[in-house]
Amino acid sequence: FTLEKPYGRVDYLLFLNGQPAGVIEAKPEGTTLTEVEHQSGRYVAGLPDWMKPPVYPLPFIYESSGTETRFTNGYDPDARSRRVFTFHRPETLSEWSRQITANKGLPT
Fold it and tell me: Model-level pTM?
């Protein structure tokens, strides 16, 4: 998916309920994923103007090599990349988004 200049192209753009919600940066097996976090982190802010995501920048960031997957939850007050065993189900990401939206402005 082509992003605004100078953001480049994201490998996969995640959608929840028809709205952009995150990105996946795919890398070859053996790639040190922590070294490409900055790349996927840039992508969440590079959507074209015609896309109107409910949350900006996009909250969900994945990097994956097929054998290793890392995830950053932008809703987390201390957002950082963590190793996960699989991609989260869309229902899980939707529920996290719903909870944040319902509690917007409340302390965590």
Answer: 0.89
